[in-house]
Amino acid sequence: MLWIKALHIVFVVTWFAGLFYLPRLFIYDDESDNAAVRAQLRIMQRRLLGITHIGGALALTFGIWTLILMPGYLQQGWLHAKLALVLGLVAYHAYLAHLVKQFAADRNTRSSRWLRVFNEVPALFLIAIVLLVILKPT
Questions:
Q1: What angle do CA 79, 75, 53 make, to 5 degrees?
Q2: If we measure between CA atoms, which residue out of 57, 55, 64 comes closest to residue 20?
Q3: What are phi and psi of 120, to 5 degrees?
Q4: End-to-end CA distance of the chain, in Å?
Q5: What are the boundaries of each domain within the chain?
Q6: Which of 11, 13, 25, 30 could make an S-S bridge to 58, C-beta 3.0–4.6 Å?
Q7: What's 74's DSSP letter?
């Protein structure tokens, strides 16, 4: 059981690395006037999105596996809140994938200011999730 929890945490960290860094790549892309730099950033976006997909899928897989082995967690209110936040992260992740496609097609409509604010969203999710898991409020 501890191996499964440990792997869940490892892949959560991997997932969050992508969730944190992809929007930074969007900001650099949006602010660049150099076509070669933008092309390189778009390659990086695509590759990082792939790693983010893998990290997210494995984090969810090991999280679900934990719930299967420890079904008592499902009766705890803090877990319901955590799962709601995880669904929000999945939606955020899906929107990142949408933005990667928009940048690849030169159809970004978001300002770098908007992207900077958007870049902070996963930090709020992370703080809330860690507090829920550690404090386990009833």
A1: 35
A2: 55
A3: -85, -15
A4: 24
A5: 2-135
A6: 11
A7: G
User: Which residues, including other chains, have CB under 8 Å from residue 58's CB and lie 6 or more apart?
Assistant: 7, 11, 14
- Residue 125 near residue 33 (C-beta atoms within 8 A): no
Reference 96, options 7, 88, 129; nearest CA is 88
Instruction: Tell whether pTM > 0.90.
Output: yes
- Is residue 28 within 8 A of residue 112, CB to CB? The reply is no
Tokens 């299967």 belong to residue: 68
CA distance 78 to 58: 22
| pLDDT digit string, tens, across residues 79-134 | 999 999 999 999 999 999 999 999 999 999 999 999 999 999 999 999 999 999 99
